[in-house]
Amino acid sequence: MKAMETKQRFFLRNARIQANAIGVIHSLALDDKNPVVVEIKPLTRTLAQNAK
């Protein structure tokens, strides 16, 4: 299996984005030796703050 090369973030603002995130999770391969981490956390900084 090829390792996941990109990091994806979903800012859950509406049902469409939520469905996209769920779809990505469903499409991930399950692998005991090379698991993928899914982290859910509240927003701590705004996008404008991160752009500085």
UniProtKB/TrEMBL annotation:
Gene3D superfamilies: NinB. It comes from the Bacteria. Signal peptide: none annotated. Pfam families: NinB. This is Putative phage recombination protein NinB.
